[in-house]
């Protein structure tokens, strides 16, 4: 039988490979469709997508997670999950379609009616997804996601590009969504056999786990959309646009590095839910690894925000540079506590709902206070809001650590021991790199911008590794993520030497 660590390593590889493939297809799709369609097409579909996404978020049942977490799901559990998904999708599809009429009236855009009907149909199709896909997560088998996510993305890309090339219509984007959902459902049944039966016999078991996730996701949908809505009430629209773009850049940078590991935590922790000592050890190990990976990315992005924004987005996005810096730091702080997978694995989803409500209660006053009092404090409304957002991230992270302590009896100081060395190293590295860039003349040519960015990233990487290693040695080489990194490096070097040795 394969060990959990080997399964996790394989899972991380397949999740990472899937994300790379899907992101490359997404990038190619965006570039091609942008050349075939006009901004108005994207704007119309973006309005409909946002409306549908809000409704989906506040009604999500999280039944797949319930099946993963369940100690021993029976066949009727899968039938119940399938039935509940289909019923929800049908009701939600009608609701999304019906929303087209008030949306068309509010935005004075009658074409939204047919687009929302299309999205409603897509939602109904997606409800027929095979619930037995949860078995792959329970077994920590993730290579199937290459076919599921890749096939879905490829189908949407091909259909959208074909329709856009022939008709030059926004329908390319709508039908692409329909094709993606249909392909995802078909592939799900091709990957693992399942013959659905209408059942509701175990709905209480599944809802007992997922109901608090549903409430939490509803609050999260409000929580994470609150910042741009609040900014729009106080600041000009271009500033809000800069904030949205900066938010995407910062979250993408941090999430892309951590997601292959983070996606494994829920099923991995679920396997250990009845063994608290092993679960506690797994959490400590994971927290140290994610801290070691996240701080150089987030702090590094904050340090090289200026050359990155100017090179990737262009001069017109210069105002987004300081926003990227603040949001990158906030994103790193938020990712230091792995509460969601731990709470789901131990059936503490009510704690997650409480966390989401508390996060909203803390964030809103701090962001609003920053907007209102930032000018009187001499930092301006925007920077006041960014400071409030960052402070709320720090405060919520500390409170989340207390919840972790309550769930698995892991004290605050034990958790901080896994974080402080990467945090100090990342901060010192960012200060050094940002200081060096501030002394260098700004590059206006493309080659110069690329060279400056590559040089800054390389220097930051060397600095971070050196500072972490020094702090680890000063601390007496404690067991943790640094130890595993050193052991892994030795194994890799050993293999390279053995391959290079003469026969």
TrEMBL record:
Q: Which family would the database say this protein is a member of? A: Belongs to the polysaccharide synthase family.
Which residue spans traverse the membrane?
A: 12-38, 44-68, 89-107, 113-133, 145-167, 173-194, 289-313, 380-399, 419-438, 450-474
Source organism lineage? Answer: Bacteria, Pseudomonadati, Pseudomonadota, Alphaproteobacteria, Sphingomonadales
> Which compartment or compartments is the protein found in?
Cell membrane
Q: Where is the signal peptide?
A: none
Q: Which InterPro entries match?
A: Poly_Biosynth_Transport
Record carries keyword Nucleotide-binding? no
- At the top level, the lineage of the source is Bacteria
Record protein name field: Lipopolysaccharide biosynthesis protein
Source species: Qipengyuania spongiae
Membrane: present as a keyword of the record? yes
Q: Note the topology in the membrane.
A: Multi-pass membrane protein
Which UniProt keywords are present, listed alphabetically? Answer: Cell membrane, Membrane, Transmembrane, Transmembrane helix
- Pfam families, per the entry: Polysacc_synt_3 (PF13440)
Chief place where the protein resides: membrane
